[in-house]
Amino acid sequence: MFRNKYYLKFVLLGFLFCLQLNAQTAINFPLISDENNATLRIDKRDAKVVSIAAEMLIDDIFKVTQKKLVTDTKNNPYQIIAGTLGQSKLIDQFVSKHKIDVSKVSGKWETYTIQVIENPSKEIKKALVIIGSDRRATAFGLLELSRMIGVSPWEWWADAVPTKKEELVIPIVTTTYGSPSVKYRGIFLNDEDWGLQRWAALNFEPETGDIGPKTYAKVFELLLRLRANTIWPAMHKCTKAFYHYPKNKEVADDYAIVIGSSHAEPMLCNINAEWNHESMGEYRYDTNAEVIKDLFKKRAKETQNFDGIYTVGMRGEHDSPMIVGEDNTDAQVSLLEQVIADQRAILNKYSKNGVDKPQAFVPYKEVLHYYQSGLKLPEDITLVWTDDNYGYMRQLSNPDEQSRSGGAGVYYHTSYWGRPHDYLWLNSTNPVLMWEEMSKAYEFKSQDLWILNCGDIKPHEYSIELFLDMAWNMNDFKKNKDISKHQTSWASREFGAENATSISNLMHSYYTLAFKRRPEFMAWSQVEPVTKSNPTEFTQYHYGDEVSQRIGAYQNLINDVTTLKSKISKEDQDAFYQLIYYPVIGAANLNHKWLYAYKNKFLASQGRQSALYFAEKSALAYESIIEETTYFNKTLKNGKWDHIMSMAPRHLPVFSKPSYAAPTQNNIPELGLALESYQMEANNSVINSYADVLPVFNSYTKNSYFLDIFLKGNGELIWEAKPKADWIKISKVEGKLNKNNLEERLWVTIDWDKVPKGEAKKEAPLGHDYQLIPPSYKVNSAIDLISNDTVITIGVSVFNPKLEVLNTYKGFIEDKGFVSINAENYSRKTDGNEAKWEIYSGLGYSDNVSVALPRTAKSQITIENIVKNSPVLEYDFYTFNFGDVNVNIQAVPTHAFFKDRGVRCAVSIDNAEPVLLDFQTFGRSENWKKNVLKNATIQVGKQVVNKAGKHTLKIWMVDPGVMIDQILIDLGGWKNSYAFPQETKM
């Protein structure tokens, strides 16, 4: 009831927007009412996809109302009349008789109009007319009505149940939809071995024992609902080739879906499944061209009467480079040019009425090198640019390439098998990153073909829809904030407006955490070759303990998604489980499994009995993944999705149960103590040692630090914490350790109103060769940790100078030998002659990045031009030390737009000559591997801070599009950590 009210309000607001936009009055059209059910009329001679879409609409309306549209009468006062212009006699007559203006539709690509005509005849009171420019447009128009009545595109694929209604009266404003932003739009079914293929073969289509025509019909239905028109079919060796089953291409034609193929499948041929070495010889064009051409001819002949996009060129088998006799680039380029010429001759021979077939060239991996090395490509072939498999476009069309008649496209991944590591289980690609990269591609005229490698569809539902919505109408995604709007709107449609904001916020946190490290990368292992799990790069003893912080963040996600689940209506529970709950719980538990295991090993090395507790927590997380995946496959929808979900694609080490460590056993209970910033446990004060000191508390950053007290051995002990100064605050001052409470984390803070002012005195610098030793301004005290006869004394040192110069200071400040800054928090910015810095939200470690726009601005090469023409960000910071410093700039690891561009910025402190920093990586270098695993790239500029006091860091754009995330000015104090420490701001 509640959801229904909000959903109708949402729909009406959308139509009111259309009303404003078109300055027209909406006309209410009753699809289903107490008095009458509308008639749906189509021309049976229209394309098969029109009748398919009509049946889908009838079924959708029945699911909403339990009532059916009428299809067997012409005398109904309310009629839906749908058809393709020039292909439907019914529509052509209606257009002619009622003088309907079809100029915005006629001759266009996939364009349709929906309008209501009142009293078109004596028998008809209102006609809802859907006119498509082609067969797909008409189908999209019919399914637009399904969208209007609240039927999700994921009605079948994610069991999204539409809200039930007694009547369906929809307000219609005359609107033309299309032409789409991208001509061919679709998905690539890939890495299907552990999900889609097994599900189809063992559950949905056992009569075929494979992904066959029945499965593809369901996939094509989804594509129609998402206004897509293209598919690259599944092509792994576990799946027979798409054209192995003759019915597949017929079903594709019925649904008006265009068949294409990947970079490794020339001419719609699946080399993995179709090349037989015994009968066909070696797959080498330089020695076996005639046999290879025979396969190309066979496929061209059998597909000449069907829609297809033919990938030209050639790679080797199993996603490998092409084999040639001469191992040099010129020979490879020459042979590839011959391959393309032969393929085009074959296509010309077998094209219907001599019409050229659409052709695509995918410069993927080594083929990009061949293209960059001078390969001559006929200009009517579509250039399909690729990402680096981890979401970052490798290259895009330069101004000359943008004028090619064949145009350009994009092949993009949200799922990948390969080095440095697979991510085949969950969907963890940040939506804002995908938008940023796709909008960049669109801006540089990649508008002819967009293909998303979505693995085996589940659980990539949201990314698929976002990708295809952008491809349909990029005008809806002009601004960074449009992604958040889309996600909230999507959640509202699926789960009601009352839950939309909570779901959107939850998924925002999910993607932010995954951006810092995808769940599948949490074992710090790699593939090709497969390596064992390795120690984590997250620190457990610096900067608040990164491991515990990430554990807490994922526990918050578990709590939030569990609370949300209890608020979701019964009919929406299955969809919520698939679209939200399982991905969130899966990611959280895979993280917890490894994070608790890392904590177990670290704590065992300190002799903590609590190490066993964390081993148990890790094992429970592992068991939870098994339990949830079993439910997904066996119980959800009574086993509808059995075999669709694997929790361990390729059975890589990251998916296994970790090994655990045990602490040394001791029957005598002892008090253990560990401090932030120390890897080993603290000393006993029997020797009156003050060597164990918490990191310095800074009055300008108001730090807090942790102390871990823990039980060593078995038994029980009582502990007490006694600060030696009244300005030292501890979160807990006494307690008991036993088998039920093995450790406690205490947080130490300072009462800054009570701490005395520090006096200037000189002491040793922070491990750094400074020109002068700065005054310390420290106030020292301690905390005694007491248990039985054991006293451990921990030093507390407070930096509290109370400098007048800082009384009104608002900038960043040195803390423990470094200054940490989030790039969006600049003190000032100045626009350049052609470009400026803008903020993109929802991306980066800080959740906001500074990006240099527009992308069409000129790169500034010389230092003189950089300073004169480029936009600049300025950051005020204050230091207490001085000397040589490292300016660490963390950026999002994008690539240059074009071959002759870079990904650069320039930095300087206090008007020193700017230093250029270049974030570009090439091929599959070790730097690139590290960058894509972290979704971050760091470059270091050497600078000098010549005195204690105020300074200014400047960052100039060198190349447009560079995205700056975080900044760390290191004066020698930064310790090892995965991410930069939190901002050191006043």
TrEMBL record:
Signal peptide: 1-23
Domain of life: Bacteria
Domain Gylcosyl hydrolase 115 C-terminal residues, every copy: 811-983
Protein name as annotated: Glycosyl hydrolase 115 family protein
Database matches in PANTHER family: GYLCOSYL HYDROLASE 115 C-TERMINAL DOMAIN-CONTAINING PROTEIN, PTHR37842
This protein's UniProt keywords: Hydrolase, Signal
GO MF term list: hydrolase activity
